[in-house]
Design goal:
alpha/beta, 7-stranded mixed sheet, 3-stranded mixed sheet, 10 strands, PyrdxlP-dep_de-COase, pyridoxal phosphate
């Protein structure tokens, strides 16, 4: 039954609205931050789907509910969600909770704006360009372009579309009729978004030519050269190579300099999917893994992964200075982008992208960077590498552990239902299912690594 104390409407009592939001923020701090990042709490309070539906009471009714009921629903939503900020959440390539990044997200959600024009988002239009400039400088470019995208997959799709448009600009008007059979090249360890992008853009997955990788998961440049020649012999036109810096499963870094040599010989667009590994550029110790990235035409980089900037924060960076993004995607809608405004219309960047409404993703990274400094973020990367090495060495010491093991699905079910931790698994090549350990949470310690190994032993002692 609906309570008589209904949620205040937007035009209602401002004191009641303030009270509601303060109460919600209190719940967030208690449940999502304090408990959600505590090693003494569960990563998740697992419920089977039917039970969870009942607990959440998901059905939407015609009558509103009381403020007390709404607050309890907020608490339940957090309680039964997976705590990705937990130090023992290793399941995805994002983990951890950076307080400054969270502060940025709260501010942007509260302001509820879209950075398509300077007049509607002056602070964020300028801030986005400054952040993109900093990321480009780390890649090794003194100029260029870029935009924040909804994720690494979309960044990769943008790169494919831009490379195609640069080669065949008529395709913007004439579509696929303007194109010969095209071929793009990527390794067998690439992210699945490359195939998705080829399908989405109408190229078809047959246009994706798979290049062999070595035993460590790195693209073999000699096979790339072979695949290009094979595609040409079959009547296709090569136009793009997508290399990977930090593959999803093995964390491999493709040899970018050698791949760039191949692209230069054949006149191909070089895209680097550095969604996972791009943040390594902040580390003087480890940035050599991306040697040659400055020779790329485009780079995808997700600070919401290894830097823990919070979802979503994904940048597409371009070396291009010819306004390619806008030429490829722009249509100068008169109600948004008239050219006779009272300020420099070059600041209206929204016509660069396929979206109209777009989230503000730069503030969370900007605020975190302001607080930590480049040195603090570098330490975050170096710590992740140190903990990964520690994990490998500890595994080697323990009887009953291998770097690839077949009992992963059983152990995954047990750990999730207990809520003690969460790790993803998958097969790879001739190997069966094995755990893919993600070391990204900036609060992670050697003690958490020890807990991980001890917990795997405990959960699997009867197997």
């Amino acid at each position: 039954m609906a309570d008589s104390k209904l949620l205040p409407s937007p035009g209602g009592d401002p004191v009641a609205v303030e009270t509601l939001l303060q109460d919600v923020f209190g719940i967030v701090v208690d449940e999502a931050i304090r408990k959600g990042t505590s090693a003494s709490e569960k990563v998740c309070d697992w419920k089977e789907p039917e039970e969870l539906k009942q607990l959440l009471d998901l059905e939407l009714q015609s009558q509103g509910e009381s403020q007390e009921q709404i607050l309890e629903r907020c608490r339940a939503v957090i309680r039964y969600s997976v705590k990705t900020g937990h130090p023992r959440f290793f399941n995805q390539l994002f983990s951890g909770l950076d307080p400054h990044s969270l502060a940025g997200r709260i501010i942007t959600e509260s302001l509820n704006t879209s950075p398509y024009t300077y007049e509607i988002a002056p602070v964020f239009v300028l801030m986005e360009e400054e952040v993109l400039k900093k990321l480009r400088a780390l890649v090794g470019w003194s100029s260029g372009d870029g935009v924040f995208c909804p994720g690494g997959s979309i960044s990769n799709m943008y790169a494919i579309n831009l490379a195609r448009y640069q080669r065949y600009p008529d395709c913007k008007q004439r579509g696929l009729r303007a194109l010969p059979p095209l071929a793009l090249f990527t390794s067998k360890e690439c992210h699945y978004s490359i195939n998705k992008g080829a399908a989405f853009l109408g190229l078809g997955t047959d246009s994706v030519r798979v290049v062999k990788a070595d035993e460590r998961g790195k693209m073999i440049p000699e096979d790339l050269e072979r695949q290009i020649s094979l595609a040409e012999a079959e009547g296709a036109v090569p136009f793009l190579v997508s290399a990977t810096s930090g593959t999803t499963v093995l964390g491999a870094f493709d040899p970018l300099d050698a791949i760039a040599d191949v692209c230069q010989r054949h006149g191909l667009w070089l895209h680097v999917d550095a969604a996972w590994g791009g943040s390594v550029l902040l580390s003087q110790t480890h940035r050599h893994l991306l040697d040659g990235i400055q020779r790329a035409d485009s780079v995808a980089w997700n600070p919401h992964k290894l830097l823990a900037a919070g979802l979503q924060c994904s940048a597409l960076l371009l070396q291009d200075t010819s306004n390619l993004l806008k030429r490829c995607h722009g249509f100068q809608a008169s109600y948004l982008f008239p050219q006779d405004k009272f300020y420099d219309v070059a600041l209206d960047t929204g016509d660069k992208v396929v979206q109209c409404g777009r989230r503000v993703d730069c503030l969370k990274l900007w605020l975190m960077w302001k607080a930590q400094g480049g040195q603090g973020l570098e330490q975050r990367i170096d710590q992740a590498f140190a903990l990964a090495r520690y994990l490998v060495e500890e595994i080697k010491k323990r009887e009953g552990f291998e770097l690839v093991m077949e009992v992963a699905p059983v152990l995954k079910e047990r750990m999730v239902k207990e809520g003690s931790m969460m790790i993803g698994y998958q097969p790879h090549g001739s190997h069966g299912n094995f755990f893919r350990m993600v070391v990204a949470n900036p609060t992670l310690t050697c003690a958490d690594i020890d807990f991980l190994l001890n917990e795997l032993e405990r959960l699997g002692q009867d197997l």
